[in-house]
Write a structure and sequence with these properties.
AcOrn/SuccOrn_fam, pyridoxal phosphate, Aspartate Aminotransferase, domain 2, 15 helices, 2 domains, Aspartate Aminotransferase, domain 1, arginine biosynthesis, alpha/beta, single chain, Class-III_PLP-dep_AT, Acetylornithine aminotransferase
Length: 403
Amino acid sequence: MNVTREMFADVMVPNYNPAAMVPVRGEGSKVWDQEGNEYIDFAGGIAVNALGHCHPEMVAALKDQSEKLWHLSNVFTNEPAIRLAKKLTDATFAERVYFANSGAEANEAALKLARRWALDHHGEHKDQIISFKQGFHGRTFFTVTVGGQAAYSDGFGPKPGAIEHATYNDLESLKAIMSEKTCAVMMEPLQGEGGIISPTAEFAEGVRALCDQHNALLIFDEVQSGVGRTGELYAYMGLGVTPDILTTAKALGGGFPVGAMLTTAKIAESLKPGTHGSTYGGNPLACAVAEKVFDIINDRELLDNVKRKEQLFRDGLNAINDKYHVFSEIRGKGLLLGCALNEDYAGRSRDFLVASTKTKLMCLVAGANVVRFAPSLVIPDEDIKEGLARFEQAVAAVVNGQE
C-alpha cells in the first residue's frame, strides 16, 4: 500500500493536524521522512523518546522479551513487572507501584486512590481535589477535568464534581480553597503543556505544608518531568519536596507505552483487590523495555550530562535571541525547555514550529506563546548545535515574514 499524508484525512478522526511530512525511520536524534529528508529531533515525541530513536539496548530488550511472553492479564504477575517495580521503589520515596499504559491512566489511578484513601480514613465529606490553572493531567474525563485548561474539558457534558483550581506559584490562591474537605492536591513539579513553568521553592514547600495541615495527599504528576528530564531522576528530588503519590509515564518506556503510579505502602492499602485495574497494565513487553530505559537513565553521570546539555541549549538560544529579539525568556529545567515569545510575537508559537519543520527541525509548542524543546536526554552535542542552527533559520524566516 502506498501511504501518503493525504490519506490521513480519509481514514483518521480529525482531532489531530499533523505535519505535512510523514516520518518513516529514526536513529538517535535524527528522523527521516518518506522522501529521505533528514530532521533533527528536538521534540522527542513530547518528552517520550528519552534515549532517542531505536536505541540498541531498548531494541535488544524488546526483541528478547518478544520471544518469551507478551501478555498474561493480571490474573498472573510476571518477572519484568516485579523487577521494574523493585527498581522504581528502590530509587524513589515510594514503596508500592501500580502499572498502567499511559500518563493519563497513571493519573486516573492516582486520583481514584486519593478519593478512596480519604473515604477509608476520613469519610465521605473529604472528596475535594485541587489542581492548578494551566495544568495538564491527561485526556480521560476525570484527568482532563482536574487539568486546569477548560478548553480541553468543556463540551462533553457534566463534569466530575468536587474539583477546583488554584493559581500555580500562588500559595494564597491555594490557601483560600483548601479545607478539611480537601483529599488531594495534584500538581506538576514543572508545568509542561501550561507553558514550561517552574515552581518556586517557596511554592512547592508551601503546597506540601498545606497538604500536611489539612490531611490531604500531595500528588506529583511527573509524566513529563520525570525519568531524568530535569537532570534529576524525578523532579521532586531537585525540589526537596516529597509527594505522597507520584505518576510517571512518557520517558519511562522510551517510546513503548507504559505508565506507573508510585506511592507508600500505607496509602496503597486503599486499593484492595477489585478496586482498580488495567488489562494491559504491567504487561511483560512494556515492563521489559521500561526496565532497560530506567537502568540506563538512573545514572548520575547521564543525569549530570542532561544539565550540561541544558546549558548548551540555553547558550545557543540566548545567542539567537540576541540577534533576533523574539523571546522574553528561556524557561524550564534540564532538557524540558521553553522559549517564551515576547509581545511582538505573542500568540505565534505555531508559526515557529511550522518554520522549523521547513528547516528540517522537529520541535513543539506549549500553548500559543511558548516554543518547547524536549529532545533525547542523550542527544549528541553536535546534533544540538546543528538543530539550533536550523532553529535560527526558522526564527529568521518568521522575523522576516517568510514562514
